[in-house]
């Protein structure tokens, strides 16, 4: 996918001031920058959560920015996956039910969705915890459930916003390793917004944003 000339304003504040960015198939890309630089706005615009005030977003030749809210919501459910800092799991549901939720909302049969959920939970080291609720899991385990949920419908792109921000260093590294390996196996691109310098340095490509503009790009294309 790609963004060209992306502009996003909140009142008089300019969060994105003409950003060009490409996310290549199967790549892991880190987006870094100081607080208020525009990196989270970029993630939300690329993911169709927010509509840009200017510019265009292309996914497989389709203009994401021109889609209606209903179509963008459908796109987020079918083509994208999301991992947030706090996991955003549904407390009343078991791990396997949380993971199966996107497929169920997309119309999949429960048996198919639960089967896919169990497969991904097993691949992410959570076999035996399928029936556990979020409150019964450690922080790292809960994030792995969130990763499984993001991957179970095999999206084209996963957007991760500070996915290790609530974890200790070792757990954060293990969790990110699990995300990157699983995404690579699925051929899914990953866009990670992070303050973690070590995490960003471990990825093949890093984009730095300052004052709503791309200040630097480091790394090689896949």
Radius of gyration: 17 Å
CATH-derived topology? Rossmann fold
Q: What is the string of helix and strand elements?
A: EEEHEEHEHHHEHEHEE
Total of DSSP H or I helical runs spanning 4+ residues: 7
Portion in strands: 25-35%
Instruction: Kindly report the name of the CATH homologous superfamily.
Output: P-loop containing nucleotide triphosphate hydrolases
- How widely separated are the two ends? 14 Å
Q: Report the helical percentage.
A: 25-40%
Strand order of the largest sheet: 6-7-8-3-9-10
Biggest β-sheet description = 6 strands, mixed
What is the SS-derived class? alpha/beta
Low-confidence stretches: none
Number of domains: 1
Query: Care to count the β-strands?
Result: 10
| The level-1 CATH class | Alpha Beta
The shape, in one word, is globular
The residue-averaged pLDDT reads 92
- Please name the CATH architecture: 3-Layer(aba) Sandwich
Keywords: ATP-binding, Nucleotide-binding, Transport
InterPro entries: AAA+_ATPase, ABC_transporter-like_ATP-bd, ABC_transporter-like_CS, ABC_transpr_LolD-like, MacB-like_ATP-bd, P-loop_NTPase
Protein name: Putative ABC transport system ATP-binding protein
GO molecular function: ATP binding; ATP hydrolysis activity; transmembrane transporter activity
Question: What do you see in this structure?
Answer:
The protein has about 220 residues and is of the alpha/beta class. It has a single domain, classed as Rossmann fold. Helices cover about 35% and strands about 25% of the residues. A six-stranded mixed sheet has the order 6-7-8-3-9-10, with helices on both faces. A four-stranded antiparallel sheet has the order 2-1-4-5, with helices on one face. β9 and β10 form a beta hairpin. α5 runs parallel beside α6. The protein is globular. The mean pLDDT is about 90.
């Amino acid at each position: 996918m790609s963004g060209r000339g992306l502009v996003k304003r909140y009142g008089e504040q300019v969060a994105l001031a003409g950003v060009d960015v490409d996310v290549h198939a199967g790549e892991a890309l880190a987006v870094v920058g100081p607080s208020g630089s525009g990196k989270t706005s970029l993630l939300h615009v690329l993911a169709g959560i927010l509509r840009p005030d200017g510019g265009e977003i292309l996914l497989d030749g389709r203009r994401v920015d021109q889609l209606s809210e209903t179509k963008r919501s459908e796109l987020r459910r079918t083509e994208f996956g999301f991992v947030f800092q706090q996991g955003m799991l549904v407390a009343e549901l078991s791990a396997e039910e949380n993971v199966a939720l996107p497929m169920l909302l997309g119309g999949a049969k429960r048996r198919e969705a639960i089967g896919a959920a169990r497969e991904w939970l097993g691949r992410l080291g959570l076999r035996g915890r399928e029936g556990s609720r979020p409150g019964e899991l450690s922080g790292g385990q809960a994030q792995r459930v969130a990763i499984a949920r993001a991957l179970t419908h095999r999206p084209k792109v996963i957007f991760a916003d500070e996915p290790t921000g609530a974890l200790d260093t070792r757990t954060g590294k293990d969790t990110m390793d699990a995300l990157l390996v699983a995404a690579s196996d699925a051929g899914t691109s990953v866009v990670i917004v992070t303050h973690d310098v070590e995490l960003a340095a471990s990825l093949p490509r890093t984009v730095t944003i300052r004052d709503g503009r791309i200040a630097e790009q480091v790394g090689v294309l896949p």
